[in-house]
Automatic annotation (TrEMBL):
It comes from the Bacteria. The keyword Transferase applies. Belongs to the DegT/DnrJ/EryC1 family. One of its GO terms (molecular function) is transaminase activity. Pfam families: DegT_DnrJ_EryC1. Gene3D superfamilies: Aspartate Aminotransferase, domain 1 (3.90.1150.10), Type I PLP-dependent aspartate aminotransferase-like (Major domain) (3.40.640.10). SUPFAM superfamilies: PLP-dependent transferases. This is DegT/DnrJ/EryC1/StrS family aminotransferase. Keywords: Aminotransferase, Pyridoxal phosphate, Transferase.
């Protein structure tokens, strides 16, 4: 009998007990709004910002309602608006082009390499006239940041990093989110810290962060922040910056602070799962692993591989066979957006763009979550199942794949 996996690809770990305790404390005193504090009390949200700034080495940090909000807030804070052209990865998640569109700008997509990172040659060609780059470290893959920053700096194009999948990661010794003018992180349930929804924005730029703080809905209470620039930075911007309400509350911050303390250990656990899968799938005919450069200190909370040149029917056959054995694979090649996976051609509020390399790569791109509820034995079992089913379909042992209905 063939082996079957019975775990859930969407089940994260529970909130740590220290987070539950801290949350109960907030619930019991009832002061959930970040600016609702007792005399001498420091809000959980302000403490989280201070701790996350220290974690990333940033001067300033602002906690907000979501990762997408953090990106939109950073764009607004550097003066991006209607009519501007903003570059971003063609391979990213929908909230990224969504944040660009929400400030009235036009997303301009940059091609994708076989390593799933932004294509820096295509970027170089598209930089002239761009107002900003939102660089998405999609699925945790980090491009050559030295080359990218040199090009963007020379062109005078500010870089906002989307670190939804690189919280805790680095390029050389510099944390992800600390290369560009601002770094944006998400604390939505499937990211590296879980508060259901939430976001963090870091930067060393006092003007940007003063604007971002007012934008987030600080009213004139910004002096209560502990990781914000001084009052002088706010004097110039406080009358001219709209309140685009998007604060974080003390309940979420209370849940997040113990998770931040655990983050390095959690990152090591993700990488242990990743490395077992990588070893289990090495040298599988028909399957290409994604190489990881030595400069990249990744945090692999998900796993990707390519099926180069496979037809849609074959990919669908593989997904169906893996699913029958309990392994849930996501495919970025679907013509229609499904679940969390969508492609540039389904973001039709943006002008249609020709991205042949991205289309070719996404047609063979398989994606899988690696929740920390999995053990390394689970990862080894998942690798054995994928390997066997890839071999069966690739070598034609699965029979004629055209017989599989193209239901999804
Ligand atoms: C999740 C995610 C975001 C935004 O996060 P939200 O908190 O859900 O708004 C941005 N970029 C990528 C690549 C993501 O996966």
């Amino acid at each position: 009998m063939s082996e079957r996996f019975t775990g859930s690809f969407t089940q994260q770990e529970p909130i740590p007990e220290a987070g539950i305790e801290a949350a109960l404390k907030v619930l019991r005193h009832g002061r959930l709004h970040r600016y609702n504090t007792a005399p001498d009390e420091i809000a959980e949200t302000a403490l989280l910002e201070e701790e996350f700034a220290a974690f990333t080495g940033a001067k300033y940090c602002l906690a907000v309602a979501s990762g997408g909000y953090a990106i939109g807030c950073a764009l607004r804070a550097i003066g991006v608006g209607p009519g501007d052209r903003v570059l971003t990865n063609a391979f990213t998640l929908a909230p990224v082009p969504g944040a660009i569109a929400a400030v009235g700008s036009a997303p301009a997509f940059v091609e994708t390499t076989e390593n799933l990172t932004i294509d820096i040659d295509d970027l170089a060609a598209k930089l002239p006239g761009a107002k900003a780059l939102v660089l998405s470290h999609m699925r945790g893959h980090i491009c050559d940041m030295d080359r990218l920053m040199a090009l963007c700096d020379a062109a005078g194009v500010p870089v906002i990093e989307d670190c939804a999948h690189t919280m805790g990661a680095a390029w050389r010794q510099t944390p992800s989110g600390r290369h560009g003018i601002a770094g944006c992180y998400s604390t939505q349930t499937y990211k590296h810290m879980n508060s259901g929804e939430g976001g963090l924005l870091v930067s060393d730029d006092p003007d940007l962060m003063a604007r971002a703080t007012i934008l987030s809905g600080s009213y004139m209470l910004y002096t209560r922040h502990r990781a914000a620039p001084g009052p002088e930075a706010f004097e110039k911007v406080k009358y001219v910056t709209p309140n685009v309400s998007g604060r974080m509350d003390n309940l979420r911050a209370a849940i997040l602070r113990p998770q931040l303390a655990d983050l390095p250990a959690q990152c090591a656990r993700w990488n242990a799962l990743y490395q077992v899968l990588e070893a289990g799938l090495a040298d599988t005919p028909g399957l290409r692993l994604i190489p990881r450069p030595a400069e990249e200190h990744y945090v692999a909370s998900s796993f990707q591989f390519l099926l180069p040149g496979w037809s849609g029917d074959r990919v669908r056959a593989l997904i169906a066979r893996a699913a029958a054995r309990g392994v849930e694979l996501k495919w970025f090649g679907h013509a229609e957006p499904t679940g969390f996976t969508s492609r540039h051609d389904s973001w039709r509020y943006a002008e249609a763009q020709s991205l042949p390399n991205t289309d070719r790569i996404l047609a063979g791109l398989i994606d899988m979550r690696l929740p920390l509820t999995f053990s390394t034995d689970d990862a080894a079992l998942i690798a054995r199942i994928i390997r066997a089913e890839v071999l069966a379909v690739h070598q034609g042992e699965a029979g004629p794949v055209e017989a599989v209905p193209a239901a999804d």
